[in-house]
């Protein structure tokens, strides 16, 4: 007899088999619950013929393959999630790189403007000093 239970998708699935538990009161095929509820119907292991060791072996192999398939699907989902996280980080890094490049351009422009303003200020100071000297000469000569 095979017993089944619903297990959350993130929990590992373990299946136990016993060829000695075969009984004649097996339920009809339609009422056997799905061994792997997350699998499509066509991928579900078919119930074995309990009188045949070969059928039980095929069922066991099918269940192992279904369990591996489930694990691979979980791993793919995790990897896809990680891919999304990495893409988001890459987008953020590129945005920060663009922001940094913009800040560098702004810094260079402000540095140039500062240099120009300092030059203008020194020229104004020189011109003011010349005007003071001229004014003092006029005051002294009058």
TrEMBL record:
Cellular component GO terms held in the UniProt record: cytosol; nucleus
InterPro entries: Map3k7cl
Protein's organism: Carlito syrichta
Protein name stated in the entry: MAP3K7 C-terminal-like protein isoform X1
Coiled coil region boundaries: 69-120
Domain of life where this protein originates: Eukaryota
Keywords: Coiled coil
Acyltransferase recorded as keyword: no
């Amino acid at each position: 007899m095979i017993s089944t239970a619903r297990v959350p998708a993130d929990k590992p699935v373990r299946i136990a088999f016993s060829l000695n538990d075969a009984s004649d009161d097996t339920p009809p095929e339609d009422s056997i619950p799905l061994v792997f509820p997350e699998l499509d119907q066509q991928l579900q292991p078919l119930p074995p013929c309990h009188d045949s060791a070969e059928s039980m072996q095929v069922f066991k192999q099918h269940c192992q393959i279904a369990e591996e398939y489930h694990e691979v699907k979980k791993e793919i989902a995790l990897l896809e999630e990680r891919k999304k996280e990495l893409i988001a980080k890459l987008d953020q890094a590129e945005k920060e790189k663009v922001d940094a490049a913009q800040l560098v351009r702004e810094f260079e422009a402000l540095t140039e403007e500062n240099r120009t303003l300092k030059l203008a200020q020194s020229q104004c100071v020189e011109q003011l000093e010349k005007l003071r000297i001229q004014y003092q000469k006029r005051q002294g000569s009058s």
